[in-house]
Design brief:
By secondary structure, the protein is of the alpha/beta class. It folds into 2 domains: 153 residues, Rossmann fold (3-Layer(aba) Sandwich); 88 residues, SIR2/SIRT2 'Small Domain'. Helix content is 36%, strand content 16%. It is elongated, with a radius of gyration of 20 Å. 36% of the residues are buried. Bound molecules: ligand BJW. The site of ligand BJW has 35 residues, from helix 2 and strand 8.
Length: 261
């Protein structure tokens, strides 16, 4: 793995255009369950009964109970080393773009700015009826909601979580920014099963456009064999190792006569 990391780091310069796509695996070390793993959310709950507009239409109370439980769990979680390293890259590299499929807000809590939230945010809500009085979508961090399902403060109808459910399109502006970010030098896909589209297609399009593509995951995914590097291991550990090699190289550049530790 060390040789791969060194080869990867040799591609990263201050001006390198780096785009990162993250998935649930990046938050796993923070104690947030993934969707499809052995203890994943979909083992206990069927996607079609909770993460579709039809499910919400059928039983908004059940769907909101699930999201309210996840929000209550999330306030007890903290960003991990993977979130921290990516936040540091955002500060260090002017051409760094972070796209996340995660709705948990942990990247922002680690300090990442301008995160492209591909599947929305669990901390945003919108009026289910798109009532003309509501501001479209708005931030609401109430935990727990005093009433389930929570009501729209503008029309007293239902509100829904500001996330993208199966069968729903990606916000056009989010899609535009994500496609723009595929013109990069290095594209990382980290902690995602690469099963959910259109997010899963981003890395392939980045490669088609000429990016060096790298996966970090604890196991192989359908994307692994098609990318330049597949680094197998926990994101929080692999990113920490990559970061250490980057920082060591910077120290050598600044003081070329210092012997390596
Ligand atoms: C670690 C780790 C550690 C663990 N370190 N790694 C093309 C082909 C087939 C199907 C489709 C297609 N195009 C569209 C579809 C349909 C559908 C789809 O993709 N279905 C497939 C599942 C078959 N897609 C859609 O419906 C999308 N919409 C769409 O296409 O609309 C078309 C349209 C256009 C115009 C108008 C109208 C419609 C929408 C998809 C929305 C997905 N939403 C969810 C829920 C969000 C809200 C919520 O959180 O409740 O998003 S589903 C869920 O999956 C969530 C995630 O963001 C997403 C991806 O999951 P992720 O992040 O990859 O997690 P896991 O659990 O799958 O994987 C975790 C990984 O981490 C694993 O690989 C582990 O190994 C790894 N790991 N610990 C590193 N420490």
């Amino acid at each position: 793995m060390n040789t791969y990391i060194e080869r990867l780091v040799s591609k990263i310069r201050p001006e390198t255009r780096i785009t990162v796509l993250t998935g649930a695996g990046v938050s796993a070390a923070s104690g947030v369950p993934t969707f499809r793993g052995p203890d994943g959310l979909w083992r206990k709950y069927r996607p079609e009964s909770l993460a579709t507009p039809e499910a919400f239409q059928r039983d908004p109370k059940l769907v909101w109970e699930w999201y309210d439980w996840r929000r209550q769990t999330l306030v007890t979680k903290r960003p991990n080393r993977a979130h921290e390293v990516l936040a540091a890259w955002g500060e260090r590299y002017p051409n760094f773009i972070l796209i996340t499929q995660n709705v948990d807000g942990l990247h922002e809590r680690a300090g990442s700015q301008n995160v492209i939230r591909f599947h929305g945010s669990i901390w945003e809500v919108l009026c289910w009826n798109n009532c003309p009085l509501s501001p479209g979508r708005w931030w609401d961090e109430t935990v727990p909601f005093p009433e389930i399902p929570p009501k729209c403060p503008h029309c007293n109808g239902l509100i829904r979580p500001g996330v993208v459910w199966f069968g729903e399109g990606i916000d056009p502006e989010v899609m535009r920014l994500s496609i723009e970010a595929l013109d990069c030098d290095v594209f990382f896909t980290i902690g995602t099963s690469s099963l959910v589209y259109p997010a899963a297609s981003l890395v392939h399009e980045a490669k088609r456009r000429g990016a060096f593509t790298v996966e970090i995951n604890i196991e192989a995914t359908p994307a692994s064999g098609l990318l330049d590097f597949a680094l197998q291991g926990p994101a929080e550990e692999v990113l920490e190792r990559v970061e250490r090699v980057i920082l060591m190289g910077r120290r050598k550049d600044q003081n070329p006569h210092t012997p390596s530790p």
